[in-house]
């Protein structure tokens, strides 16, 4: 019982870390729990995707698919506090504008939005809206849940197989948090999501989505490893964003 209670506390801390949902227990935080939160990233992705699906379903009854998609994406930004989008924009600024490793890391610490970040973020959000609009309406909820969950698993994979580029920072406490048990939990949730998606999606489309997710992961990972030698918290946000849009585009390409 104590083990399950502790796991629930870690899950709530993950929700608190990744979203703006009202988790207000001040006793949740501890260094050990913070190190363990990556194991619940995909599960929180399922939660985020499910809530976005509710907004999509309601909005699509009242408005056009374009407006429904726009409102769904906007709700997702509010729900997560644009957490991953902020990291993606900072990564675009640093990796695009930094000529050296130290300069790139310095730019990524700057809270101001630069040209690369604004352009990258605008294109990413536009691509997400267009992709959701282009999907058959009945498949959007499946795509949302699977995309949100699996893209967060992709970020965990970056943590588990990479090294942290800074001496300290937001992502530093979680860099050691993907132990064997955590990797098994991430793999189990991801497999469950894939099998659930396979019930609703054509197999070729699901395979295309997974291929797109992997390509998005690898493209961003190669970019930050060449410039920084490792990941930062911003890079993890960028991996999540690129993996998610890769999943949606791969899905569309094979429908």
Q: Quick summary of this structure?
A:
The protein is built from eleven helices and no strands. It is an all-alpha fold and 255 residues long.
Label the structural class. Answer: mainly alpha
Radius of gyration: 18 Å
Catalogue the unreliable spans.
none
Count of DSSP E strands? 0
Helix and strand run: HHHHHHHHHHH
Counting H and I runs of at least 4 residues, what is the number of helices?
A: 11
Percentage of residues in DSSP E strands = under 5%
The main sheet comes to:
none
How many domain modules?
1
Distance between the termini: 45 Å
- Give the overall form: globular
Average the pLDDT over all residues and give the rounded result: 92
Strands, helices and their partners?
Blueprint: H1 2-18, H2 31-36, H3 41-62, H4 65-80, H5 83-97, H6 101-109, H7 115-134, H8 140-161, H9 180-200, H10 203-228, H11 233-253
Helix pairs in contact: 3-4, 3-8, 3-9, 4-7, 5-6, 5-7, 5-11, 7-11, 8-9, 8-10, 8-11, 10-11
Keyphrases for this structure?
globular, mainly alpha, 0% strand, 255 residues
Could you describe the 3D structure shown?
By secondary structure, the chain is mostly helical. The protein is 76% helix and 0% strand. Helix 4 (65-80) crosses helix 7, helix 8 packs across helix 11 and helix 10 (203-228) packs antiparallel against helix 11 (233-253).
